[in-house]
Amino acid sequence: MRITEIIYLVMVSIMQNKFKVLLTSLGIIVGAMTIVMVIAIGVGGQMDVADQFKNLNAGTIEIESISATSATVDMRQMMQMMQMRSSASTSSSNSNIATLTVSDTEEMVLFINGIKDISLVASSSQSVYGGDLDETTTYTIVGASEEYQTITNLSMYMGEFITSEMEETEARSVILGYDVATEIFTYPMLAYESEIAIDDRTYTVAGVLNKTSNILNGNTVDSCIYMPYSTAEKNIFDTDIKPQMVVLAEDVDQVATIIAKASVLLKEIHPQGEFTISDAGAEMEAALSSANTLSMLLLAVATIVFIVGGIGIMNVLFVSVKERTPEIGVLKALGTSKLDILLQFLIEANLISVIGGIIGVGLSYVIMPLMQDVIRMEPTTEAGIMALVFAIVTGTVFGFYPAYQASQLRPIEALNAK
Amino acid sequence: MNVIEMNNICKSYQMGAEKLQVLKDVCITIEQGEFVAILGPSGSGKSTLMNIIGCMDISDSGEYTLSGIPVHKSRESKLGKIRNEQIGFIFQKYQLINKYNVLQNVILPLLARGQSRRQAKHVGIEKIRSVGLSDRIYHKPSELSGGQQQRVAIARAIAGNPSILLADEPTGALDTNTGKEVMEIFKKLHQEGNTIVMITHDVGIAENAERIIRIVDGCVA
After folding, report:
1. Which of A131, A302, B72, B113 has its CA 20 to 30 A from that of A124?
2. Does the structure show a pLDDT above 80 at A78?
3. What is the model's pTM?
4. CA B74, CA B80: separation in Å to the nearest integer?
5. Which of A224, A218, A248 lies closest to A77, judged by CA?
6. What percent of chain A lies above the pLDDT cut of 70?
7. Are B185 and B154 in contact (CB under 8 A)?
8. Residues of B with CB under 8 A from a CB of A
9. Architecture of domain B2-96+162-220
10. Measured between beta carbons, which residues in chain A are less than 8 angstroms from residue B99?
């Protein structure tokens, strides 16, 4: 039989059992949807990571003292811990926890070549009052130096960032993240040169940062209040604060050397300290690889969904072959070849799964925008194609055995089957 | 010229421990253009004989030549081709495929032969007209009466221009009047030169044929 005629007959058959076809392809619909969305989540995750590191210079190095009583262990910190095992780090007993200080940064600049910028960074949550706020609200206060702006590529919406003069005078000046400025003053414009109270002391707003969705040193930039490190150390931070050191190398090639030298230097200054030193490139790689692991995991789940869907198709086809045994008998009596009967069932299985695949991909494009608030999804054409390919493969693999069985029926027995 | 030549055809089935000899040395010769009835009570082996004539089963021994083709030497894959080209089946229960319309059913043997729908359509429509169902071409078999369905089956049987029409109790599922109508079509087809082999247990129906071959206990009587 001509292949076009086989397809035509299969189409006639499918058009008359639309509901049954839909039910059969349910597994494939769900499978295709899962694949598209899972890949979208994977890509979304990678883009999230990329966004996070968007403002970080490739030559950035972060140095952190390890604390056994770390308050929050987030993904990045975990990543850093993993990093520590492979990259340079000094290790000693955990009894004394070293605290990085401003003088450490000065020594770093003094003894290590190739450092372009360096800043100490620390943060603490404080209650803030002022502007249009009805009650005191808790915000993250970040202490940093002038150089922090160049290291992290922060850009100003208005006013200026921390200056060396502010640092020297321990000025009561703050720079607001865009969201903070909006929340406190409704219009960020109004924030400039206004006053806010942090922990009952008054500060003047020296500037507002541009909106960015960045996360720097574990803090969401838009929701932070920045001030000179010296000011924060004097007025805000407790003695158990855990500052981080952020270093920008003059050249990316020098990163490894600086890490090695810093490790030696810090061990000399803090013999009992233990530090993790990580560079932005390695950190980003680690974050990306964890995002990749996540997408592989999700893809495995999608594959399982497809297998289950395929078994569903196979089941229905087995029943279908049984049900249609007399029909197969007629086709055989009329001289239809085994191959033609095999192809007829195989093409039917394939069409069902392709229809299911298309519906599934279509549905996923309807659902994804609705879920955008829950999780970031980035739909890709590749994902849609992959889902369709999976659907076709599933239909072929699971449709083959029932189709083969149909083709092997003996004409007399098939004709007389009831 | 002989369309069917059967010599010493034997067929047996294994029924549990016993071997059941269904056909014993059957010899039949049917000439081109004959209308033959094979008459026998149930259990006489006439169904087995029909399966062998229809190339759906092969004999244990003996020779069967259909239009010069030595069927007894053919394998299943070859038998399908022989069925398609040489035999037009008409079954007791019509055996139409319900999801296909009348035309699609009728052209199935032509499609199986590798023709395109376009090529087969003309022949199909002409054959449907010849059985008087021109106004039912796009109907489903389930929308037709038993007699009409059997006429569709006849149209399907003649669509492929086979050397014999093989009818198995063609009126068995029909009432007397409709049965008569179907017999009239058979007679007309016979007059047009078709070779018809009809298997039946009904003497009244068998009498429509030119010649009656009686089969009793697996032997030609």
Report:
1. A131
2. no
3. 0.71
4. 10
5. A218
6. 92
7. yes
8. 51, 54, 56-57, 77, 80-85, 89, 91, 95-97, 99-100, 104, 108-109, 111-117, 156
9. 3-Layer(aba) Sandwich (3.40)
10. 12-13, 16-17
